Amino acid sequence: MNNQQEETKAIRNQTNRTEQREHSTPLFMTSSFVFDSAEHARALFADEIKGNVYSRYSNPNVDEFVAKICDMEKAQSGVATASGMSAIFSSLAALLEQGDHVLACRSLFGSSHQILSGILPKWGIDFSYGNIDNPEKWESRIEDNTKVLFLETPSNPGLDLIDLEWAGKLADAHNLILIVDNCFATPYLQKPMEYGADVVLHSATKFIDGQGRGIGGIAVGKERYLEEISFFCRHSGPALSPFNAWMFSKSLETLPARMDRHCNNALALASSLEDHPNVDWVKYPHLESHPQYNLAKKQMKKGGGVVSFNISGGYEAAKQFLDKLNTLSLSANLGDSRTIATHPASTTHSSLTEEERAAVNITSGMIRIAVGLEGKDDILEDVHQALN
Ligand SMILES: *Cc1c(COP(=O)(O)O)cnc(C)c1O
């Protein structure tokens, strides 16, 4: 790690050149690596020297991607995985054992909720939720066997925040491992390790790829935890493909520039919706009207690429809005260069009950816009014509 600016390191940190003198890191699409001699092979397997053996363990493209994210997140170590979900599952499975308990925020990503409620209980691992709007009650939910505090901020799609400094202190006071899913904010906008996070998780599928092409994930953090997560991944095998790692590494070169533009477009869209007669409320972390604006300014460099708002008239009005959009895509993804509109209650969060949705502030008229990189005026124009 050197003291260059973050934008410079995102571009310049890369694998050492090969004898071909390439300017941009080539793709190492190989499942295994050759040994110079029988003795070389023995020494590699005995861990006496470092080097590539097999791409489920290590690969130059995957290692480059991990090194770049570790640098951005100020993490000591990391492991890349085939999806965001495999990073989340592997981290929890590696760090927890039978009889342990997880305290998590209720507004977790849907599949994370499924892991806590439908998979980990099979191995005797229990969980409970804290609501995002009453953090003062969380402490009373910590049990003797609570081992992990698992958070996501900002929340999807409600865009509520959890105070990372508060969470870091809570975890510290109770000896909990603080795990933060930082996918929404990206390592450029928010660095949970600065507030005491032990492990930071990403779905690389979203803003890290940035162009809606590939699935991938990564866990980074403190060495003592990553050692266990890496061991779990090496042997259980959710390895990231070298091709996707190569693609994500290229994408990281433009992450700061893209995020600046995602955020500027999103802030412009959110501001333009504030006084709209057909909009009940609009939520965006760096909008002054956000109830946690000061916290958002403190822990997020910019407000992120997602805007949520509620259309007056509920589901019927929301359907009409979506069907009138011309330029925007109807899709369930986010973090794409193309702006995407989603109706969470009928799609991404439809498996929740009405009460569960209400507990995380997902209303029937709520629209989530994952603001892309198109011209700002065209995004605003399309949203406003569909609203009117
Ligand atoms: C998409 C997403 C995930 C899951 O990532 P995949 O790459 O789809 O497996 C996890 N957490 C958050 C916050 C996400 O948005």
UniProtKB/TrEMBL annotation:
<comment type="subunit">
    <text>Homotetramer.</text>
</comment>
<keyword id="KW-0028">Amino-acid biosynthesis</keyword>
<feature type="modified residue" description="N6-(pyridoxal phosphate)lysine">
    <location>
        <position position="206"/>
    </location>
</feature>
<feature type="region of interest" description="Disordered">
    <location>
        <begin position="1"/>
        <end position="23"/>
    </location>
</feature>
<dbReference type="GO" id="GO:0071266">
    <property type="term" value="P:'de novo' L-methionine biosynthetic process"/>
</dbReference>
<dbReference type="GO" id="GO:0019346">
    <property type="term" value="P:transsulfuration"/>
</dbReference>
<dbReference type="InterPro" id="IPR015422">
    <property type="entry name" value="PyrdxlP-dep_Trfase_small"/>
</dbReference>
<dbReference type="InterPro" id="IPR015421">
    <property type="entry name" value="PyrdxlP-dep_Trfase_major"/>
</dbReference>
<dbReference type="GO" id="GO:0016765">
    <property type="term" value="F:transferase activity, transferring alkyl or aryl (other than methyl) groups"/>
</dbReference>
<dbReference type="GO" id="GO:0016846">
    <property type="term" value="F:carbon-sulfur lyase activity"/>
</dbReference>
<dbReference type="GO" id="GO:0005737">
    <property type="term" value="C:cytoplasm"/>
</dbReference>
<comment type="function">
    <text>Catalyzes the formation of L-homocysteine from O-succinyl-L-homoserine (OSHS) and hydrogen sulfide.</text>
</comment>
<dbReference type="GO" id="GO:0030170">
    <property type="term" value="F:pyridoxal phosphate binding"/>
</dbReference>
<comment type="pathway">
    <text>Amino-acid biosynthesis; L-methionine biosynthesis via de novo pathway; L-homocysteine from O-succinyl-L-homoserine: step 1/1.</text>
</comment>
<feature type="compositionally biased region" description="Basic and acidic residues">
    <location>
        <begin position="1"/>
        <end position="10"/>
    </location>
</feature>
<keyword id="KW-0663">Pyridoxal phosphate</keyword>
<dbReference type="Pfam" id="PF01053">
    <property type="entry name" value="Cys_Met_Meta_PP"/>
</dbReference>
<protein>
    <recommendedName>
        <fullName>O-succinylhomoserine sulfhydrylase</fullName>
        <ecNumber>2.5.1.-</ecNumber>
    </recommendedName>
</protein>
<comment type="similarity">
    <text>Belongs to the trans-sulfuration enzymes family. MetZ subfamily.</text>
</comment>
<dbReference type="InterPro" id="IPR015424">
    <property type="entry name" value="PyrdxlP-dep_Trfase"/>
</dbReference>
<dbReference type="InterPro" id="IPR000277">
    <property type="entry name" value="Cys/Met-Metab_PyrdxlP-dep_enz"/>
</dbReference>
<keyword id="KW-0808">Transferase</keyword>
<dbReference type="GO" id="GO:0071268">
    <property type="term" value="P:homocysteine biosynthetic process"/>
</dbReference>
<dbReference type="InterPro" id="IPR054542">
    <property type="entry name" value="Cys_met_metab_PP"/>
</dbReference>
<keyword id="KW-0486">Methionine biosynthesis</keyword>
<dbReference type="InterPro" id="IPR006234">
    <property type="entry name" value="O-succ-hSer_sulfhydrylase"/>
</dbReference>
